[in-house]
Specification:
4 helices, 115 residues, mainly alpha
Length: 115
């Protein structure tokens, strides 16, 4: 193989092939063996952050329980059901919007398989 940066090698002097991927074979934007990559892929860290978020939510509800209970008592069942239906419809519309955006950017999603 010619030296890096040679005119016929297809690899510019930067050491990155013309395809844009680093020579190490790692995906673009990722450094193999880096500490950040290890932390980002850690199941324990994700579980810990989820536990912290859930704990803070529980603490927030427990510390304001009298106000929360009074507000929940004022809600009618049909109001909650209507709000839940609106949220589900909004999530469906947002999914369709992302699907259209990805298709416009050149990455169309395949249609969902039935069954």
């Amino acid at each position: 193989m010619p030296a890096t940066g040679a005119p016929d090698s297809g690899v510019p002097a930067t050491g990155v092939p013309a395809t844009g991927a680093p020579e190490s074979g790692a995906p673009e934007g990722r450094v193999p063996g880096s500490r950040v990559t290890g932390l980002r892929e850690s199941a324990w860290l994700r579980a810990g952050l989820l536990a912290v978020a859930a704990g803070l939510a529980v603490y927030g509800l427990a510390s304001q329980w009298t106000q929360v209970h009074a507000a929940l008592a004022r809600l009618a069942g049909y109001d909650v059901a209507g709000a839940a239906l609106c949220v589900i419809a909004g999530l469906g519309c947002m999914m369709l919007a992302w699907r259209a955006l990805l298709a416009d950017l050149g990455s169309p999603l395949p249609p969902p398989r039935s069954g």
